[in-house]
Amino acid sequence: MQAEITILGSGTSMGVPTLGCDCRVCTSPDPRDRRTRPSIAVQWNGNCVLVDTGPDFRQQALREKIARVDGVLYTHSHADHILGLDDLRPLSFGRQSHIPLYADDSAAAVIERVFDYTFDANALYPTRARVEMHRLGEQAEIQGLVFRRIPLIHGRIEVAGFRFGGAAYLTDMNRIPESSLPLLQNLDVAILDALRITPHSSHFTLEEAIEAVRLLNPRRAFFTHMSHEVHHADVSGLLPAPIQLAYDGLRIPFEI
Q: Distance between CA atoms of 81 and 204, rounded to whole angstroms?
């Protein structure tokens, strides 16, 4: 069955352009160098599942004309991955059931605390988002598609990546545990964190991401969660096959 991934945002937590910066990338006229906070939409047969709802979700949804959301999977609870949750409100009002959200115990607890006016059983806010939190186990099935949780290491914490069909979304990490490698075999599409050129304590550098692609050996690979150290035109020409830089609005077809 044919499906499509849309890169809603390919940037890092501060976005590109970064506030207060006038570097070559932040002032670039190339639209591929304008990166909102990281997120994807997976669409098939009229269904739409999001991975993360960052602070830029409203503008991303308007840009991509997203009018329906069938579920949201959360990788972890950092601000650049959760703060757009409230913008699910208008997309939840016309549904017969609440939009299901899936997050690990720790991430779910933070999301429920930050958005207590949405999740508190005694909340009085009449137009709160009609969403329902589910604790994420090994996998979640949404509209018939299975999203398998892939444990990743992000600095000192474990976060979730996801595999669905022949594709995997692996953002915010600096290590793939050995135990996760069997879950990432025979990939058609791998989308990986590649923050910047210089080292970082909780993200892959470009070189580390390239090595991860060699290890996973997908047929196609795309780098995301990129900072203003990554100039799209310059870096694209240096990447070995089958790697490409993602950009906001990129659509990636794949089979499920």
A: 18
For residue 198, with 0-12 CB atoms within 10 Å meaning exposed, 13-18 middle and 19 or more buried, which class applies?
A: exposed
**Which residue type sits at 84?**
G
* E-only strand ranges, the chain: 2-9, 39-44, 47-51, 71-73, 99-103, 131-135, 139-142, 145-154, 157-164, 167-170, 189-193, 220-224, 243-245, 251-255
Length of the chain as a residue count: 256
Eight-class DSSP state of 172? S
**Residues 107 and 74: beta-carbon distance below 8 Å:** yes
Which domains are assigned to the chain?
Answer: 2-248 (3.60.15.10)
17 half-sphere exposure, CB direction, 13 A CA radius: 12
Q: How confident is the model over 192-225, as pLDDT tens digits?
A: 999 999 999 999 999 999 999 999 999 999 999 9
Average pLDDT over residues 85-113: 96
